[in-house]
Design brief:
It contains 17 helices and 14 strands. It is of the alpha/beta class and about 525 residues long.
């Protein structure tokens, strides 16, 4: 949603070329940057913006295959404070109708010792991408051990360490962390089989089959069931909920962290002004956090959020709808107002044709300091590792999180969990091939373009209509440009469900970014919110 989850910016660059000779900012393409990213890509704009890369050597890719021999999972026993629990690490087979193994999906399950399955909640959790392993949720928020970061989430000095995660929701629910096929230790049998799972529908079917098989082998069919997805993992969770409801598996609740169910709300394309409006409130929050807003704007985050959202969904949308019909004075007024709420210089807003997107905003907000702003988390800043006008998109937030989390998990899974495996643990499916031209997320099957923007909100709606007891919790970060909070709220307010179902929807916002749990001050609240949701009758 690339960790892969993983991006974009052409309309503004085109406008800039027409209006000025200012060099173009880097395109937002996390799916192609060096460190893997956890946030969702934006499919249609990416295809518009970029010339197709030379195709990889298909013969070489076709030769890739992996051993599908079933191996018993590794079971170990541990303690977290007063909690005694069992950890199970292994792979489950995904088979075709004839019984042939087409892929194996890696998981780590944490189950409380002595609990009764019929009353003990069970939560399946995963990150997104598409093409992201679930290492970020695992080692950042949910697992009984987590990577030790600086209190605000900044990168610590190496060597990196793990600590007990006293904020793990294991005290309230058993947990199963699952890696998508092609990520972590999950593998397809071969690249031909992989095509079946690398798409919106095929990916959901694979996770659905994993859940069914886990329930059977672990004898957990009687347990209260929950889903927790992050980023594109929310896209997947919505689709899986609809898929499994039709197959007799219903969930008590779904937790959507950093949500994207409708890509129209994110896609800042020339023909989609809505996404610009839904992104602006997050820009305002980040600009305030970076001390770039006028002093007369609300200093309280809640009040600023309300005012910026009201401006974006009324005045700003109206300005964009007028297009070239704006008079010179009206356009000048629009430039001033947009600059006021984004913290960008007026000339940048003008060059962007009133439509500064995420790539332009993160590049130019702190341009006078030669710093980039984080896309995943606007609290993070850093200089571009190459040069200021480097075209490759760079996110200082992901750059800070990736090395510590990767190193700590690789040590943890092999030592404390005892899972001995020579396979590399791929935080991103893009690491499957060493060819530079292998760009995983370009291989993702999003669906038929004639159907419009990719979306799974209709699957969630269907699940809620068929299961009137299904509850949904939406959790968003104020400083997350990958999945802006206003976009999530817009999507959920357009589900078209009745009053009874709307009572089952709840929202929580955190003063953090995409991975809300990076801030230690937020991590405990995240635990408490998950616990309260799971305990709710």
């Amino acid at each position: 949603m690339r960790i892969a989850l993983a991006l974009l910016t052409l309309a503004c660059a085109a406008a800039a070329q027409q209006r000025t000779s200012l060099p173009r900012p880097p395109s937002e393409k996390p799916g192609e940057q060096a460190p893997p990213e956890e946030s969702p890509p934006r499919p249609s704009v990416e295809k518009e913006q970029q010339q197709p890369a030379p195709p990889p050597n298909e013969d070489e890719l076709a030769k890739l295959k992996w051993d599908m021999t079933e191996v018993a999972p590794v079971v170990t026993h541990h303690q977290l404070g007063k909690l005694h629990y069992t950890a199970t690490a292994g792979r489950l087979p995904i088979k075709d109708q004839a019984g042939g193994i087409e892929a194996e999906m890696f998981f780590v399950a944490y189950t409380l010792d002595g609990a009764q399955p019929a009353s003990r909640p069970l939560t399946f959790a995963f990150n997104g991408g598409p093409g992201s392993a679930s290492i970020w949720l695992h080692m950042g928020a949910l697992g009984p051990r987590r990577v030790k970061m600086e209190p605000e989430g900044w990168m610590p000095a190496s060597p990196y360490r793990r600590v007990e995660n006293t904020a793990s929701p294991l005290d309230k629910t058993d947990l199963v962390l699952v890696d998508a096929i092609g990520t972590g230790f999950s593998r397809p049998a071969n690249m031909q089989k992989a095509k079946k799972f690398w798409g919106l529908k095929g990916d959901a079917a694979a996770f659905g089959e994993f859940i069914r098989l886990y329930l059977s082998r672990s004898q957990r069919w009687s347990s209260p069931l929950y889903l927790l997805g992050e980023s594109y993992g929310t896209t997947r969770a919505a689709e899986v909920s609809g898929y499994l409801t039709d197959r007799g598996i219903a969930f008590k609740g779904i937790m959507l962290l950093s949500m994207v169910l409708d890509f129209e709300t994110l896609e800042t394309a020339r023909t989609n002004d809505l996404a610009y409006a839904l992104t602006l409130p997050t820009m305002a929050m980040i600009a305030q956090q970076q001390h770039k807003l006028a002093a007369d704007l609300p200093q309280d985050p809640a009040k600023l959020r309300q005012e910026a959202t009201r401006f974006a969904m009324s005045d700003y949308l109206g300005m964009l709808a007028r297009g070239d019909a704006l008079s010179p004075q009206e356009r000048a007024d629009a430039v001033a107002k947009i600059a006021r709420y984004t913290g960008l210089k007026p000339e940048i807003v003008d060059w962007a044709n009133l439509r500064p997107d995420v790539g332009i905003f993160t590049h130019y907000l702190l341009a006078d300091e030669h710093l980039q702003v984080g896309r995943l988390d606007g609290r993070f800043t850093g200089p571009h590792p190459k040069e200021f006008f480097e075209r490759d998109f760079y996110d200082p937030a992901m750059a800070a999180v990736s090395p510590p989390t990767t190193a700590v998990f690789n040590d943890y899974v092999r030592t404390e969990l005892g899972y001995a495996n020579d396979l590399p643990y791929y935080t991103s499916a893009g690491q499957l091939s060493t060819q530079e031209s292998f760009q995983f997320w370009r291989k993702w099957e999003w669906g038929n373009a004639a159907e419009g923007f990719p979306e799974t909100s209709s699957s969630l709606r269907a699940a809620m209509q068929k299961n009137p007891h299904l509850r949904v919790l939406v959790m968003e970060g104020l400083y997350d440009l990958a999945t802006p909070f206003a976009a999530a709220e817009y999507t959920m307010s357009h589900l078209d469900v009745g009053a009874a179902q709307r009572k089952n929807l709840s929202y929580i916002t955190y003063e953090s970014g995409h991975m809300v749990y990076l801030r230690e001050s937020v991590l405990q609240k995240f635990h408490d919110d998950v616990a309260a949701f799971v305990e709710q009758k």
